[in-house]
Every structure is written in C-alpha cells, then in structure tokens.
Specification:
Blueprint (H helix, E strand, L loop, with lengths): L4 H16 L3 H13 L1 H32 L1 H24 L16 H13 L2 H10 L11 H25 L1 H10 L2 H22 L1
Helix pairs in contact: 1-7, 2-3, 2-5, 2-7, 2-8, 3-5, 3-6, 3-7, 4-6, 4-9
C-alpha cells in the first residue's frame, strides 16, 4: 500500500473533523442551498471540490520542487506551517460561529454560475495552500518512497471526502440552518475542537 495505513486512518479522522467544522466554504454552501435548493448546494460543493483539486495539484508539485531544491526552504516551510497552524488554532478558539447569521440570497442563480463562483471562491483563498503545505507532509511515510505521489493521493482523498460531506450539507442546509439558529453554541464548540487539533498538529510538525 502506497500510504501508511496507520497514518491514513489518522488522516481520515483529521480531515473528517476539518470538513464538518463550520468555515467559509460551509457558509457559502449553506447560503447557496438555503436560497437555491439542494441541487445548487450540491453544485456549489462540486465547485469547492474543483478548487481544492487545483490546490492539491499545485501544492503537491510545488512542494516537491522545493524539497528537491533546498533543505533550507523546507525548514522555512515547516516552521512557517507550524506557526500558521497555531494561528489557525487560536483563531478557531476565539471565533464564535457565524453560521446562523449567514444571509440567504434572494434571486435564483444559474447552475453554471453557482459552479463557477464556488470554484473561484475556493481557488482564490490563499490560506488553503498554506494549510496544505503544513498539513499533508505530516502524513507522508518517507520509508515507503514516492512522497510526491503520496501527497497527491492524500490530497485527492481530502477532495473526495470534502465533496461528500459538503454535498450532504448542501442537501440538508435548510434544516441545518434552522437547527443552528436555535443552537448557536454548537458551531463554537466545533471551532474549539478544530483549534485544538490544529495546535496539536503544529506541535507534531516541529517535534
């Protein structure tokens, strides 16, 4: 097996938690689905997945080139990634969920526009690239060889699981939105759990 099974299990649990934690992508999908229906929510999820695929390919190929060219740059990326993960963890702990305050759009939008807007929204988010740089290498087993291919497989796994989770969220966004408006603290709890995971990953990255 190309990817270490034990690391893969930890990776799946980590990305599942990340995928279900309220964030910008979820806010966009919920708002789109609330105003345009389940189909638009699924299309928006596909757009987000396309954007993640772009990030996966870019980071995998770019990081491989950096690692091959300069160990110094690798250390800079490693420590920078750890610092960014700590920053994300602190922000997650300090930020209350805004999911219940997301306004629904009033006018219907064509399906191809929903797809395009979701894709562009995700591609133009530079934090995803920084997160990938900090996150994916931690689950690469150097002893198995082919680190670039391992990162690509891990990235594609992230994309597929994210698409599945986002699609479910898109289909059930109306009910989910009503539930979260009644229980505003749920999003905050998820944010704090995610913040703890981010900080723990930062510690693992530097140690």
């Amino acid at each position: 097996m190309l990817v270490n099974p034990a690391l893969l299990l930890v990776f799946l649990l980590a990305i599942l938690l990340i995928c279900i934690t309220p964030g910008p992508d979820m806010l966009y999908i919920v708002a789109t689905s609330l105003s345009q229906g389940p189909l638009a929510g699924v299309v928006a999820s596909i757009g987000m997945a396309v954007g993640m695929l772009v990030h996966t390919v870019a980071v995998t190929l770019g990081l491989a080139a950096v690692l091959a060219a300069s160990p110094v740059l690798y250390e800079v990326i490693r420590w920078g990634g750890a610092a960014y993960l700590v920053f994300m963890g602190i922000q997650a702990w300090r930020t209350r969920s805004e999911l219940a305050e997301t306004p629904a759009a009033a006018d219907p939008v064509a399906t191809h526009r929903v797809l395009w807007r979701a894709t562009v929204t995700n591609v133009l988010n530079p934090k995803i690239i920084l997160f990938y740089l900090a996150f994916l290498p931690q689950f690469v087993d150097a002893g198995r060889g082919h680190p670039t291919l391992q990162m690509l497989v891990l990235g594609l796994t992230f994309v597929v699981l994210g698409l599945l989770v986002d699609s479910v969220i898109g289909i059930t966004a109306g009910r989910l939105g009503r539930w979260l408006r009644r229980r505003r603290g749920a999003g905050t709890i998820l944010n704090r759990i995610a913040g703890t995971v981010f900080i723990a990953l930062a510690v693992r990255l530097v140690v």
